[in-house]
Amino acid sequence: MTASFAPGAYVFPGGGIEAADASPNTFAQTRRRPTQDDTRLVQAIAAIRESFEELGVLLARHVDGRHATTADVAALDRHGPFVAQCVARGLTLAADEVFILAHWITDRDLPRRFDVPFLVARVPEDQEPVADEKEQFEPVWVRPADALERHRAGQFFIIFPTIRTLERLQAFARVDEVLASCAGEQPWFVSCPRAGILAGKEQRFMEHEPPFGELALVCPEGQMVHHLDWQSDHPVPLLRNVQRLTCGNPGVMTGPGTNSYVVGDPDTGHIVIDPGPEDAEHQERLWRAAGGDIRLIVCTHSHPDHSPGARPLQALCERHGHKPPLLGLSSLPTARAASHFVPDRELADGERLVLEGPDHRHTLRVIHTPGHAANHLCLVLEEDGLLFSGDHVLNGSTTVIDPPDGHMSDYLASLDRLEAACATDHIEFILPAHGYVLGNVFGDAHDATDVIRRLRLHRLQREAKILAVMRALPEGTMQDWLAQAYDDVPSRMWPVAMRSLTAHVERLRELM
Ligand SMILES: [Zn+2]
After folding, report:
1. Which of 157, 221, 298, 476 could in theory staple to 480 by disulfide, Cβ–Cβ 3.0 to 4.6 A?
2. Which contiguous run of DSSP H or E holds residue 472?
């Protein structure tokens, strides 16, 4: 409990890089890989020195190539000048055996912040760690899976970066496999996690985890203020002029429920995007969130969880004296009966819907995006660089492509259009109809463009797998192909996956 960093926690040994770690004299006493640049070399040297000082583990070799032994360690003073002592004993530092594993940057809300490469190396066979009793106290060897198990049982306190690193490490059966995965000199990931409040507790998330984008949008400086629990009682303010109301219709197909968005402010009036299914309480909440001033109602598409609430919301507004037009795209004959839809006015691709205030405006630009549904559209909030993606891009679930109204080639072409829009409009965040906000600061991992690229890659990887299965089983039925191409998906999801499989098969036949 007296340690200077993470008191009471099990941590990896480590510490700050010192000037001597980067000196030409130290470099001259160090083995390096041809691919190891100076930065990686200095990090490796600091790690070797810290492991020695804190734990008495010495990653060094004699001239004949033998590793340093317990006897070598015992002969050195752990508080004396490190490199000079190694030289005197004929040892060179084995930085060529140290690899970068991950790169962590401490979260923004913490008073002391660190930028830390996590490094990995095999410890020489006969050495045993002995704690320095200053920074390390109780060295243990523990398998990653066992550490996580004991942590879950409350018997092994570890902090977030340790937990996530062990989660990745537990996938490897052997040290050699870990080292081989690090041969590229690049970390598995670079992460600066973000924190929010979920189920009454502080919880942290990495860039690829569902709540990250929302935390980046709502609390950019890392303030610990945002609640992530899903509820349908009150609006969630995402920006000063953007609120989200989630309908109380959670389910297998709707995730936490359908997200309706209210864009605008008291000076400009509001546009409601996707009023949801018919649900009087939900439409009443939308009306209240807009302060009773709804100028337009827009549906991204006409599936039953998105558009049936539009007419009731319009009628509610009309009872209060003003009837906002209902905008969108009419359903095509390919749509299922429950998705039949005719707006008051058809939206043109590229059209701008403008809310005008005395000194500012909010502009929503329409992008036609067929694929999930033939009458699907997305909206770009130009002033804020946000994309309302409807069901075309989701967080926490995969968009279903259900032919004939859904179409895989159209879906992919629409993704291309959205990616282009992200670049031209500097879009950082995507607000989906199901799940948390996606995205990150423009240009960082998992920003809006990156999210779309990963989505496309995911689809194309699935398609490649389907194509391989079709070639291996040319006489197979759709059921045969489904079982193999979606063997990583729980079988309860197969009825839904069958629709996507059909869409992929249709596209592959179009391409052949
Ligand atoms: Zn939906």
Report:
1. 476
2. helix 448-472
